[in-house]
Write a structure and sequence with these properties.
The chain is an alpha+beta fold. The protein is built from 6 helices and 22 strands. It folds into 3 domains: about 80 residues, Hepatocyte Growth Factor; about 80 residues, 3-Layer(bba) Sandwich (Hepatocyte Growth Factor); about 240 residues, Rossmann fold. Helix content is about 15%, strand content about 30%.
């Protein structure tokens, strides 16, 4: 039967917090708060209004957090900082900050009206469409907005917030926009034949296993993205905070998606933890290891679910090596203790993982679907899956195995971890797991 245990990261303090839950507004507002770091753009604002900085973040799919800096702190004018991750907060009267709670963009189109479906309207303090856009971003019920220029419906500019998305019409009076979901993305990386400058044993079905998971994620409404064979190179999995050449947050990196699956040979060691084989060495070696990984929004990425279809990706003796990668606030990491196996019979299991991960916990599905014990279906071999959930409290870490792909629970610091495994599972390539 599956077993589990909880561990506290001793160097961190435990702070009581509720179980993860999706927040309502697209962007939050945190007064007297700074979020230093992870900046990709900054600029002066035309007026000292935090909502102008919030609106800039709302319009940019790359932006995950913002910090507004008051005038006379970093220059005569107010300044806006846009961030590609979600840095930790610090109390500071200089600033107003916030984070995106969903992968959403609020659009803006000048010369457009969207009449109807209004639930709120109000005058604006200045003639800026971005103030209306920001008001929509801060309200969960708002699905569209229309800014009306001064002199059309009174002396002041006016903002209309809408609980549905009315049809767009051309009008010089107005600027309008909508909340648009930017699709969650499933990324996969697979190697079947090592015909580059790195070595490995050919496994013809590995890309099919990865692809079955990715295709099912696509059928569930997620965007699909993949790199296979010669494109599997270690900069795509290393974080720039750990290696100067790391590019896991870049266009081809696994931390650019919300869920990622890698299908590659794996090894393990006390110094490096898991080490995954690459296809092609581009100047940084033929392996990626846990010392080089930092995954999730606190490190500039998006990953909530990290899946490792790789031998000894979660060897029992090196589970502690996953504390560091989780510092990026990835929610769940799944892998194997000992050898895992590749073949046509496993393709459906990866498809089922994706399918059922939308109706029940992803971690629970990994534990049950990837486990095999000595029968013909598995060529008389035992496979031992392991799952680690992370959270700010023991309850949150335990509950992480119940998060579904579309839940979008809040990102949490890895203060606690919860490990789930099969009692006494005894694979090739590693020792028997404890009871």
């Amino acid at each position: 039967m599956p077993r589990s245990w909880i561990m506290l990261l001793a160097s961190l303090l435990v702070i009581a917090s509720p179980l993860p839950a999706a927040a309502d507004p697209v962007l939050t507002v945190e007064s007297n708060t700074d979020r230093a770091g992870l900046d990709y753009q900054n600029f002066e604002l035309s007026s000292a209004r935090p909502d102008l900085c919030l609106a800039a973040c709302a319009k940019d799919a790359r932006c995950q957090a913002y910090t507004y800096v008051k005038p006379a702190v970093q220059g005569a004018k107010a300044r806006c900082w846009l961030k590609q991750g979600k840095p930790t907060t610090s109390a500071n009267s200089c600033c107003v900050s916030g984070v995106k709670t969903a992968k959403t963009v609020v659009s803006s189109a000048s010369g457009k009206d969207r009449p109807g479906s209004d639930y709120s309207s109000f005058n604006l303090p200045s003639a800026s469409p971005d103030l209306c856009l920001a008001a929509c971003a801060k309200q969960a019920s708002c699905k569209a907005w229309t800014y009306v220029k001064p002199g059309v419906q009174g002396a002041s500019a006016r903002c209309w917030l809408k609980n549905n998305v009315p049809a767009e019409t051309a009008s010089t009076c107005c600027t309008s926009g909508t909340k648009q979901n930017s699709l969650e993305q499933a990324r996969s990386y697979a190697i079947t034949k090592w015909d580059g400058n790195c070595s490995g044993s050919q496994r013809d079905w590995w890309d099919d296993m990865c692809m079955a998971w990715r295709h099912r994620m696509g059928a569930k409404g997620w965007d699909q993205w993949w790199n296979n064979f010669s494109l599997v190179q270690n900069p795509k999995f290393a974080d720039p905070q750990e290696e100067t050449w790391g590019a896991d947050n870049g266009s081809s990196g696994w931390d650019r998606g919300e869920a990622a699956l890698i299908c590659t040979h794996g090894g393990h060691g006390a110094a490096t933890g898991w080490s995954g084989s690459m296809h092609t060495d581009v100047g940084h070696g033929c392996k990626i290891n846990t010392n080089q990984i930092l995954a999730g929004p606190a490190s500039g990425g998006h990953l909530r679910f990290l899946h490792l279809s790789s031998c000894n990706s979660m060897n029992w003796d090196e589970l502690d090596k996953w504390w560091m990668p989780a510092g990026g606030r990835v929610h769940l990491v799944t892998g194997f203790h000992g050898f895992m196996y590749i073949g046509g019979r496993y393709v459906d299991e990866y498809e089922d993982l994706a399918n059922d991960g939308f109706s029940s916990g992803v971690g629970n599905n990994w534990i049950h679907k990837m486990h095999h014990v000595d029968h013909w279906y598995n060529a008389w071999e035992t496979v031992c899956p392991i799952v680690i959930g992370f959270g700010e409290t023991a309850a949150a870490a335990t509950n992480a195995v119940n998060e579904k792909y579309n839940d979008r629970w809040a990102d949490q610091a890895p203060v606690w971890r919860h490990v789930v495994w099969w009692s006494k599972c005894d694979p090739d390539g590693a020792g028997q797991l404890p009871e």
